[in-house]
Design brief:
Length: 312
């Protein structure tokens, strides 16, 4: 059900920026530049934020849109998996390794794998599924999805950035998200995208919910040309977003990196997250020991009860 609004203990974030793997350039074809801004929303303002998002699209009539432009509303479901070493080397160095998959009809399809570096630089590699697992790399949950023809440059990139043993990389944070997008296009080319996302992650049987609001200018790479009427419409829409969202004091601005920010949110919700990531074997042994003690206690109680009945 979209969207989920009433969730106990949820952490609500309002972002005027997409996740890094989908980040747009901070430019706009001519006209007014739209600068990505992140806002962390107060939990009590979530319903108000969603209403403002819906208002931006619903308050635009077809007569207001220039002829060559059109608006659409789309739903998108996907998964972001952040990979790191057991000692969280990428997290500590301000980098991120992100595996993006889209989900349709409960089927996951690889999209790409991106190494994100400080300063906004990225190295992106195409991802795909391989049915035949021939090598240790094929069986790895991340490396096995890199196109075989691109694995050598991918491993070289990892080595350059300090990952000497890529096989130790593992998923440390998995985010499932549903996004509703409101998109303005010129013919078929996107010009401006505004989206609202519901993101979920879990650990130890508990869920963490994060909500994002985003605005993404597009069309920069396509050298999209807008006439004055079209440009005024886009600028007015961006101004409406600024007026309805940025000036309403519904949150505080943050400039944290996405991986670091998501990790911090997850760690606050799950205090043992660092420990389970760094020492998974120790945690597994501890869990096994606890279960063994519980099992032993139950067995002792059962045997004691039978012994008592036998004496009677």
């Amino acid at each position: 059900m979209w969207p989920r609004l009433v969730l106990p203990g949820c952490l609500c974030l309002l972002l005027v920026m997409p996740p890094d793997s989908l980040a747009a350039e901070t430019c706009h074809p001519k006209g007014k530049a739209i600068q990505p801004t992140r806002i962390q929303i107060h939990e009590a303002k979530l319903v108000d934020a969603l209403k403002r998002f819906n208002d931006i699209g619903s308050n635009i009539s077809a007569d207001d849109i220039p002829k060559a432009l059109n608006q659409t509303a789309t739903l998108y479901q996907g998964r972001f998996s952040y990979f790191d070493t057991p000692d969280l080397q990428l997290l500590r160095s301000g980098k991120a390794l992100l595996f993006h998959e889209k989900i349709r009809h409960n089927k996951q399809t690889p999209v790409d794998i991106t190494l994100q570096l400080p300063g906004g630089k990225k190295s992106r590699f195409e991802a795909k599924n391989y049915r035949r697992k021939l090598t240790a790399l094929d069986k790895h949950p991340l490396l096995g999805h890199i196109k075989r023809s691109e694995r050598k440059p991918f491993l070289a990139t990892l080595t350059t950035h300090g990952i000497a043993t890529p096989l130790t990389l593992k998923p440390v944070l998995i985010l499932d998200f549903n996004r509703k997008n409101f998109v303005i296009r010129k013919y078929t080319t996107p010009v401006l995208q505004i989206g609202f996302s519901a993101i979920e992650t879990s650990a130890f049987g508990m869920g963490l919910y994060i909500y994002e609001f985003e605005i993404k200018p597009t069309g920069c790479q396509e050298n999209l040309s807008l006439n004055p009427m079209e440009q005024n419409f886009i600028d007015d829409l961006a101004g409406r977003f600024e007026q309805q969202v940025l000036t309403q004091q519904i949150g505080s601005i943050t400039t944290d990196r996405h991986y670091q920010r998501y990790w911090q949110a997850a760690r606050e919700a799950f205090p043992l997250l660092d420990l389970t990531t760094r020492y998974p074997l120790l945690i597994a042994l501890s869990q096994a020991l606890i279960l063994a003690l519980i099992g032993g206690l139950l067995l002792w109680l059962i045997l004691s009860r039978h012994a008592t009945k036998g004496k009677q």
